[in-house]
Design a protein that fits this description.
Helix 2 crosses helix 3. The protein is 31% helix and 10% strand. With 113 residues, the chain is an alpha+beta fold. The chain has a domain of 54 residues: Molybdopterin biosynthesis moea protein, domain 2, CATH 3.90.105.
Length: 113
């Protein structure tokens, strides 16, 4: 008895190309992919530290989202920018309407202005 060959449907180019659209911004530009070395350069840290960020091993910082391509890991630029914004610590509040600070307060120090 001969078995009939099994056919496997594979996606055509249109299917793969439509996936690229989900990786694009509203302006139609492809979201750049960053390597560990590029991220390390931008953050001014070692590649080892970036790998620790990718693996979620840095306390007090959320895990850096990435794509694993075997041992190689890459990060989309938009995800990296969002991750940086989420992990900004001690954001300085906008007190632009307040002119005096604690050192220059005339009423608290007992000095008349």
């Amino acid at each position: 008895m001969s078995a009939e060959p099994t056919t496997v449907e594979t996606p055509d180019r249109a299917t793969f190309n439509s996936g690229a659209e989900s990786n694009s911004h509203s302006h139609g530009h492809i979201d750049p992919i960053l390597t560990v070395a590029e991220i390390a350069s931008e953050l001014r840290c070692s590649q080892r530290h970036v790998r620790r960020l990718l693996n979620g091993k840095i306390q007090g910082v959320t895990r850096l989202p990435h794509l694993s391509l075997g041992r190689k890991k890459v990060v989309q630029r938009s995800h990296f920018e969002r991750w940086k914004n989420i992990n900004v610590s001690d954001i300085i509040p906008d007190h632009s309407n307040k002119v005096e600070d604690a050192m220059h307060s005339t009423k608290e120090n007992g000095y008349a202005s």
